[in-house]
Amino acid sequence: MEDDGGYPFRTPVSREMKKALRKAVSHFETICEVKPQKIFQEKLQDAVETWVCVVESLNDQQLRNEIVGYQKKLNFTKEVFKSMAGKSKHTFPVICLAILDKYIRNFDIKLAEPFFKLRDELLDEFNQLLGEDGIFLYPTYPDVAPYHMEMLFRPFNIGYSVIFNILGLPVTQCPLGLGDKGLPLGMQIIGAMNQDRLPMAASVELERVFGGWISPCDIRKSSIKLTEVV
To answer: What's the rounded Cα separation, in Å, for the pair 60 and 70?
Structure first.
């Protein structure tokens, strides 16, 4: 599956990401002599909403209390300005999640029930689809490696990967070299429940054929002198 069909708040999957995925599909079709099945799972469009609802249900403590060790409450306004000045002890994404966590807990739990049902349906459908000998190839992220902090402005892009966290299916992230601009790209390989060996074996094969992880720049030895401390 090359993308989730499009979503108003998610970045479209780039051409080079789809190209890399198709190369992997073509390789497996050649060596396995099995016709690949292209699918479209519409339920994956609600990945982020489903992930948020399930994660919130697993934790009965507010994140704002957890990140300060229950010693005091986190002052959101103060921490946001401190973070902008580089003075906060907490990363900006964690502060944003704590703010989101506060307001999500005020919603009626009944509003989340459709997403729990969707999670269960997805799990059943993937287990039936993949069985004991199938793998699912899917983008990990819509584009090549993003700039630092860039993901903060595209939070819904994480839907491609976080949905499989709450499904509990085995996933292996497989690097597929560098894109057109010399930036790393890759995809995720998913197996059915307890079939961890399949996505790992598939990743090993793709690493052998396509070179696996490739450094986007020269890695030079550090010239820093180490001083023995007694």
So the answer is: 13
Give the predicted TM-score (pTM) of the model.
Answer: 0.78
**Of 129, 128, 4, 104, residue with least CA distance to 54:** 104
Q: Which tokens in the block code for residue 221?
A: 């030895």
- Token reading at 70: 């229950």
SS3 2: coil
CA angle 214–216–219, rounded 5-degree value: 90
Domain 15-207 homologous superfamily, CATH: Amidase signature (AS) domain (3.90.1300.10)
Better pLDDT: 129 or 80 = 129
Helix (H) or strand (E) holding 172: strand 171-178
What is the Cα–Cα distance from 129 to 125, expressed in whole angstroms?
6
- Ordered by start, the domain boundaries in the chain are 15-207
Q: In the sheet that 171-178 helps form, which strands lie side by side, from edge to edge?
A: 136-139, 184-190, 171-178
Instruction: Report, as an integer, the average pLDDT of 61-66.
Output: 50
> What H or E segment, with its residue span, contains residue 18?
helix 15-32
Contact 35, 72 (CB under 8 A): no
- Contact indicator for 191, 169 with CB cutoff of 8 Å: yes
| Residues facing residue 187 across a β-bridge | 139, 174
* C-alpha–C-alpha distance, residues 167 and 153, integer Å: 26
Q: What is the pLDDT of residues 132-165, one digit of tens each?
A: 999 999 999 999 888 877 777 788 888 899 999 9
Task: Name the more confident of 99 and 179.
Answer: 179
Average pLDDT of the chain? 82
